[in-house]
Design a protein that fits this description.
The protein is of the alpha/beta class. It has two domains: about 1-170 and about 365-379, Rossmann fold; about 170-360, 3-Layer(aba) Sandwich (Rossmann fold). Helix content is about 50%, strand content about 15%. The chain has a seven-stranded parallel sheet with strand order 3-2-1-4-5-6-7, with helices on both faces.
Length: about 375
């Protein structure tokens, strides 16, 4: 069968590539065509457009690139129509993908639409649920609480497991010792504090300086490793390393860094979940512009009490979230002190991580998602 897949960023490329492999296990004749990335291209099929040409984040970049976005939409529709897929699979990226889902249902009738990795409509765009019910045949969720959210709107969905669980289970160097890790990377023998400052340049500019300032007082007993973001050159980090001789930037080793760390400072996002699954005590740090307005908006406009996946999944505060008004060097330093030196505080967090793992379930998200897709196509 023929599958048309649309991805808009790096994480989607990773998850979609795993889904493609699982589909191919069930459908040896699977033919893929996609807006995606390098990982998907390694699986096979035809890469029509790279997600790097589409990844506009934030209001201003979207407005500035509106003509390009509209051209991409028009091109995608024409390309999809000429391909005549048996299934359309959308991966996150809701602003673009919901328009495609609407097009498929209105203009390419009879083609089922699958959505893998539900957009976070539960956070602040609850009204979009009506559109998903209308244009998406099967919603494949990766966060357990999403099932209850959609059920509230009488929209039956599938929880297929979380692909981060799969990635952690399949990671390399699982039996590595600290000594092996340190020798390979030219590190000292001191314990490690990990700094995960974001995946985009603006996030790093916003978060890393304060993170570094906060860990200064721990330099005698610890060394600090910044997990370099994919696609960002090492030279970008050089200005931040000045005055911090204990800091080292390592690329392509995020899981290894976390696995060998005593604690981590982490921006919100999938990284918070990765740290928890690797059992690393953490504090979530996220600097925003206009912090007072952001804090007001979070309290009054969002439909969620937390920003981190760890707390959202557990339904309570497990890790401290320091963002907007709470994002200060002193607050980060105080929380890190608790994580490193207050044993009961640290242990409570690790116990809650065990509950999180139970809620997420076993590995196999892409296999379960592929099974749902294949079953629908054969029904």
């Amino acid at each position: 069968m023929k599958y048309y897949i649309i991805v808009g960023e790096a994480s989607g490329d990773q998850h979609a590539s795993n889904l493609m492999r699982s589909i191919r296990e069930l459908d040896r004749e699977a033919e893929f065509r996609y807006f995606g990335g390098d990982l998907m291209a390694q699986v096979g099929g035809t890469l029509v457009k790279h997600y790097r040409e589409m990844a506009y984040m934030g209001l201003m970049p979207v407005l500035l690139h509106a003509p390009a976005i509209l051209r991409n939409l028009s091109f995608c529709k024409r390309d999809m129509a000429s391909f005549h897929p048996d299934a359309v699979i959308l991966v996150d990226y809701p602003g673009f993908n919901l328009k495609i889902a609407r097009y498929v249902k209105k203009k390419l009738s009879g083609i089922p639409v699958f959505y893998y990795i539900s957009p976070k409509v539960w956070a602040w765009k609850e009204y979009r649920v009506k559109s998903f019910r209308k244009y998406v045949d099967e919603m494949l969720c990766i966060l357990p609480f999403e099932v209850d959210f959609f059920k509230k709107h009488h929209y039956p969905v599938h929880y297929v497991g979380n692909p981060t669980v799969d990635a952690i289970a399949q990671r390399s160097h699982q039996e590595e010792t600290f000594r092996q890790f340190a020798e390979e990377n030219g590190l000292e023998k001191k314990p490690v504090i990990a700094l995960l400052a974001g995946s985009r340049q603006q996030e790093i500019r916003n978060n890393l300086p304060s993170m570094l300032e906060a860990v200064k007082g721990f330099a005698d007993g610890y060394q600090f490793i910044v997990a370099g973001a994919p696609g960002i050159d090492l030279s970008f980090y050089h200005p931040y390393e000045k005055g911090f001789p204990q800091v080292k930037v390592l690329f392509g080793q995020t899981y290894r860094i976390l696995a060998q760390s005593e604690a981590a400072l982490v921006t919100s996002g999938t990284a918070t979940l990765e740290a928890a699954l690797l059992n690393v005590p953490q504090v979530v740090c996220y600097r925003t512009s206009l912090p007072r307005i952001t804090s007001w908006g979070f309290r009054h406009l969002l439909h969620t009490p937390f920003i981190s996946l760890v707390n959202l999944i557990c339904g309570r505060e497990v890790v401290k979230e320091l963002f907007a008004k709470q994002f200060t060097v002193e607050n980060i330093r105080r929380e890190l002190q608790q994580l490193l030196h207050v044993q009961s505080y640290r242990q409570n967090m690790l116990e809650s991580y065990r509950e999180l793992r139970e809620r997420l379930g076993e590995p196999g998200a892409s296999v379960r998602a592929a099974t749902v897709i294949r079953r629908r196509l054969l029904s």
